[in-house]
Amino acid sequence: GYRSRAAYKLKQLDDLENVIESGDTVVDLGAAPGGWLQVAAENVGPEGTVIGVDLQRIKPFDDEALNERVETVRGDMTEDRTRERVIDAAGGPVDAVVSDMAPNMSGEYSLDQARSLHLARQAFETALELLDTGGDFVVKVFQGPDVEEFRADVEEEFRYVRATSPKASRDESSEIYFVGKGRITAPVRPGD
Ligand code: SAM
Predict the structure, then answer these.
(1) Residue 20 burial (C-beta neighbours within 10 Å; 0-12, 13-18, 19+)
(2) Ligand 1 close to Cβ of residue 78 (< 6 A)
(3) Is cis: bond before 46, omega within 30 of 0?
(4) Which secondary-structure segment (H or E) carries 94?
(5) Ranges under pLDDT 70 in the chain
(6) Backbone Cα Rg of the chain
(7) What pLDDT, on the 0 to 100 scale, is given for residue 167?
């Protein structure tokens, strides 16, 4: 079984948009407790790699075959040093960056929404640092002010962007996922 109900959201997104393929290198932001990691590790197969990042520790999986494909980084994605560790772990351009990051809920929607958008923008920056040409990006954001502007920024970097709310998340009605398909330009590598 999966560690989180969220696992089914990534399954649905991937069924619709094919973001994770066999042999891929995938970076999963906000990965704890690890449901998306399980789905991603299954889909990349034995030749693939998934790097999971979270503030929280991610426990190893019972399935050794999955553990062999998964690397975890514990840290805060709003900090440069965490981003640098993720870039090191990736060791080069990656095929997909997926982010299910969400803030700790304060209960005040406007605050939670602003924090969610900030995390989504951090994920986008990381995607621009890491994604190979043609690579895909998935990001969660809570609906609200400035989300359309964020979408427009993502649209500039990908062939197309689709907004979806997977069935598995309809009861959390404020969240949507943007899927950016096919990064247009190659990343600038250190030294270029
Ligand atoms: N996709 C996960 C799964 O399937 O198990 C569930 C992710 S949960 C909805 C959101 C996660 O984002 C939390 O584990 C939280 O710790 C993480 N998160 C929030 N802010 C973060 C940050 N600044 N850096 C890294 N992770 C963060």
Answers:
(1) buried
(2) yes
(3) no
(4) strand 94-99
(5) 168-173, 186-192
(6) 15
(7) 74
What does the CA dihedral 114, 135, 132, 78 come to, rounded to 10 degrees? 20
Is 167 labeled as catalytic in the residue annotation?
Answer: no
pLDDT confidence of residue 1: 87
User: 34 labelled as ligand-binding?
Assistant: yes
Closest CA to 39 of 73, 6, 87, 74: 6
Count of other CB atoms within 10 angstroms of residue 97: 28
Structural domains in the chain plus CATH codes:
6-183 (3.40.50.150)
Cβ of 52 closer than 6 Å to ligand 1, yes or no, is no
Scanning the structure block, which residue is given the tokens 């079984």? Answer: 1
**Residue 37's Cα: distance from chain center in Å?**
10
Residue among 36, 101, 118, 121 to mutate when testing ligand 1 (max atoms within 8 A of CB) = 101
CA of 191 to the centre of ligand 1 (A): 32
- pLDDT at 188 (0 to 100): 61
Q: How far is the CA of 72 from the centre of ligand 1 (A)?
A: 13
